[in-house]
Each structure stands twice: as C-alpha cells, then as structure tokens.
Write a structure and sequence with these properties.
The structure is a single chain. This protein has 474 residues and is an alpha/beta fold. The chain has 3 domains: 4-94, Thrombin, subunit H, CATH 2.40.10.170; 97-372, Rossmann fold (3-Layer(aba) Sandwich), CATH 3.40.50.12240; 383-471, no CATH class. It has helices at residues 4-7, 10-19, 151-156, 175-185, 206-219, 242-255, 268-281, 295-303, 332-340, 349-353, 383-407, 414-431, 441-452, 465-471; strands spanning 21-24, 28-30, 33-37, 46-51, 57-65, 69-74, 87-94, 96-99, 107-108, 125-128, 139-140, 145-147, 159-160, 167-169, 187-188, 195-204, 225-231, 260-266, 307-309, 315-323, 343-346, 366-367. The strands form 4 sheets. Strands 9, 11, 14, 16, 17, 18, 19, 20, 21 and 22 form a 10-stranded mixed sheet that branches. A 7-stranded antiparallel sheet has the order 1-7-4-5-6-3-2, with helices on one face. Strands 13-12-15 form a 3-stranded antiparallel sheet, with no helix packed on it. The radius of gyration is 26 Å and the shape is elongated.
C-alpha cells in the first residue's frame, strides 16, 4: 500500500490528517462494495469519502469492519474506480443529515441532496440517519384517529397516530395512486397540531416520481411534503439509506417541531432487494428465498422509528408500501413486515381487475390499534359495532358467493340474495370511491349504514337495538 504522501498533495494531506485518516489502494471492488486492508480501527456505519484517481469524490459508509479489512458501500456506485487509484478518507463519524423544517416542499434524493434544482436549506442540526433508540418506557400508547378520507380504511382498518400500518400490494396495482390520495387527504382531527408528510420512494421509475410530484402540486399540498426520491436508475445502494434519511427528518419534525408526521415509504420490496444484493456480494449465507438472515431486524430498525413520546406533542405514523412478489402474502417481505407492524392493508388483484378502487380486501386487512382510537369522542359512538358488523356480513357474502358458484345463483334463498345485494353495494359504493372523493368519517359511517340496511335487522347481531333504531333504514 502506498503512503498517503506519495499520492496526495501536501495541502490535501494536511486536511485529511486533521479530519481523519486516509488510505490509498483498495484490495477489492465488488459491485458497490470496496474493500480496504490494514486500516486503523474503523467504526461500523462510519461515513467515508471515496476518491478516484481523477479526483472525483463519492460518499460511502462502512458496512463491515474487522482487524483484517474494512468493507465500504459506495452510494454513487463504483464505476470508474480502480484498485490502485482508489483512496478512502474515513471521517470518524456516522452518516448524518442536516435537518430543518424548510425541507418541507422540497424534492431530494435518498441522501437528502437537491433534486428540484434549488439549494437545500442549511440544516439547523446534523443528525445520525440511523436514529436514536426511543426508550420503550417513554413511548405513549397511540390513540388518536387520522382521517384518510378513504372509507374502507377509516371504517375498517383505522389509522391511528403513531401506528405503523403497511399496505400489501402487487405489481401493476394502484398503490401509488392510493399513496398520493392519502397524502392529499390525510387530516388530524381536532386540530391539535400541524400535519406534515415525509415521502420516501425507493427504486421507482422516473414517470412514477413525476406522478407523485405533479399530484402533490395539483392538490396544493407540496409545501407540506418532503420527498426523498431514489430512482430506478440510481445506484441501488442508495435505497438502503433513503428511508433512514426520510425518518431522520420525520423525527425532527415530530419531536422538535411538534408536528403530526405521516411517513409513506414505497416500495419496501425494492429496499429489501437491495439488502439481498449487498448480502450476496458479501458472500453471506442466505436465509429464506436468498434474503439475509438479518432482514427482520433491519426492517424493525425502520418500522420501530414510529410512535409517540410521552411529553411530546408530535408523532410519527408510518404507511410502508410493498409489492408482494407473485401476490404471495407468505413471502418473507410481507411475512416479516406483518410481525413487526400493527396490522396491514391488503390489496386484492381480483377486485382491481373488476375496476374497484382502491382494491382493498377487507377480510385479510386489519388494524390492531383501531379499537383504542375509535368510538364516542374520537370518531362516532357506533363506529366499533358498525366495523364489526361489516366484517361479519361481508364474510358471509363470501360464503354465499362460493355456494352460488356451485349450485347457481337462482337456487339461493331470499336471504342469500339479500347478502349478494349487500356485497355488491358494499364493494361498488362503500369500498370503491373516486380518486378525488374525500369522505369524512361521518359520511363513511352513514354509507356503511346504507349498506347494512340492505340486510334484515335480525341479521345484524353485532349492533345494539338503539343503534338499529337510530340508523337502520329498513
């Protein structure tokens, strides 16, 4: 290995010695990874400046460290790097992001650099993108309702402030459209504090990124949205940092600026594919379907950065979106995500094929925290019972449809025919709604009663007599 004085001018060498140590001559380059031997003890996750022989500077992060070698992942890729011409400047600090409230309304890349042509505002402070663990005893239990304006979510899989509620979709379905609609319509009821959106897109195509930006501009909400976009043609390694950058800003907005923050991350499948790519290049022993064994803990590091802290007014709510490979909900990505998060919203390809938007299947979807955020004083007193009755009645619709496929619809009883009518109304009028249709929770519950009124009162056993007398139209 060459001495630094043989490779760099004295002025550059002096600056390097002041800021950290620098080494020349890589031992191996493999995809986005660069290996350097015989370095000083280097910290995991430490920020690295990688210099090529032509003077081009790139950013990197220590991925693995030992007495023998250090592995650095280069965010901009390793194209053009050579073994003897590559140098590394170890910064002695983790990767940080300068955070400021002025980042709302801006479009950035996965590392927080400008994509919209304007300079990024100077951050009020630098924060480690890996975040700071929240003491579990300091967490406050989520109870406050977020109105998305989408009936099937608000009524049956209610989103609560501080919750992490993923959307399980599939390739070609309208999850991007739903994400844009939620960003436009999401509201904090009661006006307790300001509401902001942090949007992280990983591995998306340019037209998808343009769709999000245009949608937010047309809706007039872009000033309240901070977008972190890692495009499909960007180095895949950048995708592993994008959600961390987004969550770092979200923590600043929520816990320093007292905002209610909704973080939408799409597509988490692309994020996991990048982890698998890096793991393969490092030669690690694969786990399920080739993904690394630490996939669960890695996802948990992201998802657990949501919540509320006692004594703080702000909160972070997460809506991660992932496309299930082959629509398989048992695939490792949705499977592990379901263990970490508090429920899921599941898309159905059959409903999508029938033109229903959003194509959310109510039965496999759930929100484990909704029971503590709905009811009298929060949404409406009849909300819990209406939700339970919708689940029960729609489940019976599925049974009736299965029976009709065997014996024919004309052979069904009169009650079964009523259930079919309920199921059709429920899907076409309640679940399905226009992209610009922003329903209040009162409108949603009234529409649910309109659907339930298609069934006899004696079939609605999860509702009280007082509720039936007040709302049933039969």
């Amino acid at each position: 290995m060459k001495k630094m004085s043989e490779t760099f001018p004295s002025g550059m060498l002096d600056r390097a010695l002041l800021a950290g140590r620098e080494y020349a001559g890589a031992s191996r380059i493999d995809g986005p990874l660069v290996y350097m031997r015989k370095t000083h003890p280097v910290g995991y996750g430490e920020l690295v400046e990688v210099l090529s022989s032509d003077g081009l500077r790139r950013s990197g992060q220590v991925l693995d460290t030992s007495d023998e070698a250090v592995v650095v992942q280069v965010f901009e890729g390793t194209s053009g790097l050579t073994l003897p011409g590559t140098s590394m400047h170890f910064m002695g600090e983790p990767l940080t992001l300068g955070v400021t409230e002025a980042m709302l309304g801006r479009v950035m890349d996965g590392l927080g650099r400008s994509r919209d042509g304007a300079a990024i505002p100077t951050g009020t402070e630098e924060r480690d993108v890996n975040g700071t663990p929240i003491n579990p005893t300091a967490r406050e239990y989520p109870r406050d309702f977020i109105q998305t304006g989408i009936s099937v979510i608000d009524a049956m899989t209610t989103l609560i402030q501080g919750q992490k509620l993923p959307i399980f979709s599939g390739n070609g379905m309208d999850h991007n459209k739903l994400a844009a609609q939620i960003v436009r319509q999401a509201k904090v009821r009661g006006g307790k504090s300001e509401f902001a959106i942090v949007f992280a897109a990983m591995g998306v195509k340019y037209d998808v990124a343009r769709y999000f930006i245009d949608s937010f501009e047309q809706a007039g909400v872009l000033d309240d949205v901070a977008l972190f976009l890692s495009l499909a043609d960007d180095p895949s390694i950048e995708r592993t940092i994008t959600p961390r950058s987004a969550l770092t800003l979200a923590e600043h907005l929520a816990f320093d600026k007292d905002k209610q923050v909704l973080v939408i991350m799409t597509d988490m499948t692309n994020y996991c594919e990048s982890l698998r790519e890096i793991s393969t290049q490092r030669g690690e022993i694969p786990s399920r379907k080739g993904y690394p064994g630490y996939l669960y803990s890695n996802l948990a590091e992201l998802y657990e950065r949501s919540g509320k802290i006692a004594g703080r007014k702000g909160s972070i709510t997460q809506l991660p979106i992932l496309t299930m490979p082959n629509d398989d909900i048992s695939h490792p990505i949705p499977d592990l995500t379901g263990y970490i998060t508090e429920g899921q919203i599941v898309f159905d390809r059959t409903m999508s094929g029938r033109g229903i938007y959003p194509p959310i299947a109510p039965l496999p979807s759930l929100s484990r925290l909704m029971k503590d955020g709905i009811g009298e004083g929060m949404t409406r007193a009849d909300h819990p019972h209406v939700s339970n009755q919708l689940f029960a009645s729609y489940n019976h619709v599925r049974e009736v449809r299965n029976l009709a496929s065997v014996i024919g619809e004309e052979e069904l009883t009169g009650l079964d025919q009523q259930y079919l009518a309920f199921g059709d109304f429920f899907e076409r009028r309640f679940i399905s709604q226009a992209f610009n249709d922003d329903r209040t929770i009162e409108q949603t519950l009234d529409l649910a009663w309109e659907a339930l009124s298609l069934l006899p009162r004696e079939e609605l056993q999860r509702l009280t007599d007082d509720e039936l007398n007040t709302h049933h139209k039969g």
